[in-house]
Design a protein that fits this description.
Blueprint: H1 2-25, E1 30-34, E2 37-41, H2 48-56, H3 68-82, H4 84-101, H5 108-135, E3 146-147, H6 149-174
Antiparallel strand pairs: 1-2, 1-3
């Protein structure tokens, strides 16, 4: 009974990793329209908007420096992306043990570790989304910015990681005796 659940945990972790990678490395966190043109900003690379504004709007004397909340959101997304690598290692170890020995008491802390790392990913991505959602309207008052698709992809990744966290906790509590 626990082997299909362990496989589901792996599938959920993989889906959450793909969504986190897409959200972190695409540039649609904040979008704004200026008539016929649409512009967007991502968290990677961190300084791309300053270069864009300096090149294209030299007559405006307007240099945009990203505020500290944007830096905090970027760092949270980088950390949540990096947390998936130890998460994969712990998952592969636990799934190997379950496949060869069944779900025994000795791997209970592996599933608890999966739950812990998933909860960290959820918290970091949720706080990054909240920071962007609250502060995006004051990012560039001239252009009327809005949240882009990357922010919502990060939110959906946090939701998938929440399901993986819950399922992993369930397996640790009820199947690893």
């Amino acid at each position: 009974m626990s082997r299909p659940k362990v496989g589901a945990i792996g599938a959920l972790i993989l889906v959450s990793f793909i969504l986190t990678a897409v959200a972190t490395f695409t540039k649609n966190w904040i979008v704004w329209n200026t008539g016929f043109f649409s512009y967007s900003v991502g968290v990677v690379p961190y300084n791309q908007v300053t270069i864009f504004i300096e090149r294209n709007f030299k007559n405006w004397f307007f240099i945009l420096n990203r505020p500290s909340w944007f830096l905090a959101s970027a760092i949270m997304m980088y950390i949540s992306f990096a947390l998936f690598f130890p998460l994969f290692l712990i998952y592969f170890h636990a799934s190997y043990k379950v496949h060869h020995h069944g779900c025994c008491h000795s791997i209970r802390h592996s599933f608890n570790g999966i739950s812990l790392i998933c909860s960290l990913v959820v918290m970091l991505e949720a706080v990054a989304f909240i920071l962007m959602a609250v502060n995006s309207s004051s990012y560039m008052n001239v252009f009327f910015p809005d949240l882009g698709s990357s922010a919502y992809i990060a939110l959906s990744s946090a939701i998938v990681a929440t399901i993986a966290m819950s399922l992993s906790g369930h397996v640790a509590r009820h199947h690893c005796h």
